[in-house]
Model the fold of this input.
Amino acid sequence: MSLLLWCFGGFLMILGIVQLTEFILLFWNRPTWELARYLTVPLSGHVENMEQLIRYLRILTQWEDGRSEIFLLDIGMDDESREVCSLYCEQNEELHLVSAQQLAEYLLKKHPSK
Done:
């Protein structure tokens, strides 16, 4: 029993050292400017469980302090899925239902080439 506890404790220590090393490396290598983060999800046809998908995407980006935006790229969704998606986009400002052309225009306007 004692050997098992020592092995488990050693495993947790190694895991902690790896996590600490990752944190230090990410901190040292971070850029000096604020990064814009975009999550783009292409959707086509009938999308089952649209509500679950949107909830999942919002959970993925909730820890980013409002710096990330979610683009739901319409590449041929059916009318029902598009309607549900547009309702969620109206309720959440970080969600955008866009076509490929609209996405390109938005990104060029937001980040013009120098």
In short: The helical segments are 2-28, 50-61, 79-91, 100-110. Residues 4 and 57 are 40 Å apart (CA to CA). The longest helix spans residues 2-28. The mean pLDDT is 89.
